[in-house]
Amino acid sequence: MNEGHAERTDGRQAEVGIWDYFYVLYKWRKFIVINVFVITLVAVIVALLLPVQYKATATVVAPRKTDIFGGLGALGQSIREFAPFLRGLSGGQLPLFTYLAILNSRTAMEKVVEKFDLIKVYGIKDSSMEKAVKKLRSNTDFEIDENGILVINVYDRDRQRAADMANYFIDVLNEINIKLNTEEARNNRIVIEKRYLQNLSDLRAAEDTLKKFQQRYGIYYLPEQTKAAIEAAAELEARIIAEEVKLGILQRQFGEDAPEVKTAMIQIEEMKKRLNQMKEGSEKSKNEMSLFVPFKDVPELGLQYLRLYRDYEIQNKLLEFIVPLYEQAKIEEQKNVPVVQVLDYAVPPEKKARPFRTLIVLSVFASALVLFIIISFVNESLLNKKQFLNSLDLKAYNFARKVANIYKIS
Question: Which InterPro entries match (predicted)?
Fold first, then answer.
């Protein structure tokens, strides 16, 4: 290099100063400038030749929750708890993440490819759907922003087609979402319908049995305390059965180990304990005045009537709950309306979105500059070597010498 690299008499190499680095850069300036210029020029040409793409954007928000059970009082509260499960996927806690999964699905991508004949547009010679889907994925971007809005971005060389594709993704999202919701709602309707039909059968049996008992023994009246206890127990038992229906739906949707399933099981267990206390009485109720008379304290014949009347009341209470639930399940199954709420449809963009030509050129320029500066220092180091340990070192030296000769570096 220069005397900064000269070996001292004690065998140690002289220290390298900052000016030595500037000296190397100055010495190899022609090599650096020419190569960086050529590579940057190529980058400019390539950037100019890259096809322009436009970005069209559509936005979607989560569906608003509507309360259609508000006029049903306490019964409506119970049914409202079922509403998300009856509505299937659209009633879930995170509908936008469901939308993301649908938009990124192969089914959605293939529908867009077929609609806009993208195999031809993208110039895929072997007509491969897989390649077309892969290309389309690279030209789409779906995300949920910080405001909880689903953003659909589509890139294309044609600004009108970009907007049309973004809007068609919304149509596809609606179509697939309706299909999935309908399928889920049908499964829920089948579960509820089975329980509804069983309830009708049980109610008829309870009515017939109670009627026969009344005709045989002539019992048609219960004391108010006993009647109140029966009605309270019947309502609680009807709620237990309803919660068991809900538990069945939860188990099918989320599995046995889901937190929602475990919570529902605990609630059912607690209600069963309370029901047992009402039937058998508790230590607390024995020592205090109670509105409800434990069933076991009723005389034998009255107890038989009580049980029959209780079974009848249970089926009545359950029917009050299950009928509107069943009707709502049928409505949800037959729904065929768009559920996706569009905030903004895409319009043809005015400005190009990519390529980022300036960024491409600057990145290539910076990378080339760093690369050739490093090569210059390596070459200078090779040219200053006095000894070569192997043939590889010698070849590297010869290469550095050849480069120096080409650029007339002495």
Answer: Bact_polysacc_biosynth/exp, LPS_length_determ_N
